[in-house]
Design goal:
Helices cover 0% and strands 36% of the residues. The relative contact order is 0.11. It is mainly β.
Length: 164
C-alpha cells in the first residue's frame, strides 16, 4: 500500500487494506499530520500536536487502541519494524504496539527506559533506543538486533549514534 501526506497536512492511502491501503476508519483523525511512518502492514501518522493515529493490519501495528490513551499527545519520535511501531514521548517514555516478537512489546526492557530515550532506530524486526546518557536499549527479534546482551559492555555508555 501507499500513503500520501498532502500539502494541507491530510493523508490519503491506497492499496490493499491488509497493508494499510484503507484509512477510512481513522480518516477524521488524519488532519494536521506532520509525518507518516510505514511498516510492511500498517501506517502510523504523527500529528503536529504530538498524537499518533495508526491504521492497517490490526495484528501488525494498524490497531493502537491498547495504547491509544498514551498516544493522544506528547509523542516526539516514531519508528517502525515490518510489523510493529514504537513511539517516544516528550518524557522519554517508549510506547510500543504491533507484533510482540518483532518489537511491539518492550516490557522486558521497560526498566531501561527510565533514563529518557532521545533517539530510536529500527531494523525489520527490532528496535534500538539511545538514552540521554548514551546507553543503548534493544528489543524485538534477536536475529535482527533485538538482543544486545553480547555487546552490553560496549553499548553501556558513550554511544552517540546507531546505524541500522
Amino acid at each position: 500500500a501507499f500513503c500520501a501526506l498532502k500539502s494541507d497536512a491530510s493523508v490519503c492511502a491506497w492499496g490493499s487494506h491488509i497493508f494499510g491501503g484503507d484509512a477510512s476508519a481513522v480518516s477524521s483523525r488524519l488532519v494536521d499530520i506532520h509525518t507518516v511512518f510505514p511498516s510492511s502492514y500498517a501506517f502510523a501518522a504523527l500529528t503536529k500536536g504530538g498524537a499518533v493515529v495508526s491504521w492497517g493490519c490490526k495484528e501488525f501495528g494498524g490497531d493502537s487502541t491498547s495504547v491509544a490513551e498514551e498516544l493522544q499527545n506528547g509523542v516526539q519520535l516514531v519508528a517502525s519494524t515490518e510489523k510493529a511501531f514504537a513511539a517516544v514521548k516528550e518524557s522519554g517514555r517508549v510506547i510500543t504496539w504491533g507484533s510482540a516478537c518483532e518489537g511491539g512489546d518492550a516490557t522486558s526492557v521497560a526498566v531501561d527506559f527510565r533514563d529518557n530515550i532521545v533517539q530510536l532506530w529500527s531494523t525489520a524486526s527490532a528496535f534500538a533506543a539511545l538514552t540521554k546518557s548514551g546507553c543503548v536499549v534493544t528489543w524485538g527479534d534477536a536475529d535482527f538486533g533485538g538482543d544486545s546482551c553480547s555487546v552490553a559492555h560496549d553499548v553501556r555508555c558513550e554511544v552517540q549514534q546507531i546505524c541500522s
